[in-house]
Amino acid sequence: MNAVKKLAIVLSLGASVVSASAASIEKAYVESFDGVTDQPVPVSVVAPAILADRGAEVILEFVVDTAGVPQGIKVASSNNEKLAAAAIKAVTEWRFTPRVKDGEAVESKVRLPFVAGLPGISNDRYAIF
C-alpha cells in the first residue's frame, strides 16, 4: 500500500481573502503535484464555495476513474454539513490525470480532507488506497 498522503484545502474566513486568493491557491495546489506519478494528479480543482467556521472538517471518499473523473463521492466524516455539501459539489468539478500502473490508467480510491482555516496549502495532499 502506498504511503498515506493527505490534502488540506484550507478555506478562508473572509470573503475578500477568498475572492482575491482562491485562484492562486488552487493553482499552487495543482502545481504542487509536479512530478508525482504514484497517485491520481489533479489537473483542475475548484475550492468549495462556502465560508466555513474555523475548525470545520470534512473527509470525502471517492474513486478517480480511468478518465480522471471523480465517481461515487461520499462523506466519510464531517463536523459541518454545509462544508460537506459544498465540498462534494466542488469535487464533482475536479479532474485528474489517473494513476498509471504497468503502463495502463487504473482507478484509484481517494480520501480527501477539507479543513477550514487560514489560506494556504498543506504539504500533505490526500490518501489513496
Summarize the structure.
This protein has helices spanning 15-31, 81-91; strands at residues 7-11, 41-44, 57-64, 70-78, 95-97, 99-101, 104-106, 108-116, 121-125, 127-128.
Which secondary-structure class do the elements indicate? alpha+beta
What gap, in angstroms, lies between the N and C termini? 7 Å
Radius of gyration: 14 Å
Q: Describe the sheet with the most strands.
A: 6 strands, mixed
Strand content: 35-45%
Number of helices: 2
Global outline:
globular
Which topology does CATH recognise? Fusion Protein Consisting Of Minor Coat Protein, Glycine Rich Linker, Tola, And A His Tag, Chain: A, Domain 2
**What low-confidence regions span 5 or more consecutive residues with pLDDT below 50?**
1-21, 120-124
Q: Class, according to the CATH hierarchy?
A: Alpha Beta
Overall pLDDT metric: 75
Number of domains: 1
CATH architecture: 2-Layer Sandwich
Order of helices and strands: EHEEEHEEEEEE
What's the β-strand tally?
A: 10
Range of helix content: 10-25%
